[in-house]
Amino acid sequence: NVDLGVLAAGSGAFIIGLTVAQALIALKKYAHVAISLLIGCLAFVGAVSALAAVSDAMLRASLAFFIGALVATLSMLVSIAKDIRGPLPDSALPLIDAVTQEPIEI
Description:
By secondary structure, the protein is mainly alpha-helical.
């Protein structure tokens, strides 16, 4: 079913976005997360408006959810990519210490 596939893709984008949001929060980039989520919400509303011609409400909502989640995730990825390319901020040092001091269990 197309609706289920689009919802699954949207859920995947949303989960990746939440993971990237956690990384941004760990780097104390709270505003970047908030702005990215706001951009995603605006993309969702814009997609609902743009897809008004689609008669199937479930498909329209699924596509809008996918577009909103994808836009928010891409916005967060761009934000974190800019931070990764630059010098490491002092706010990341506690995160690095915590990660390197804990044993990795596989």
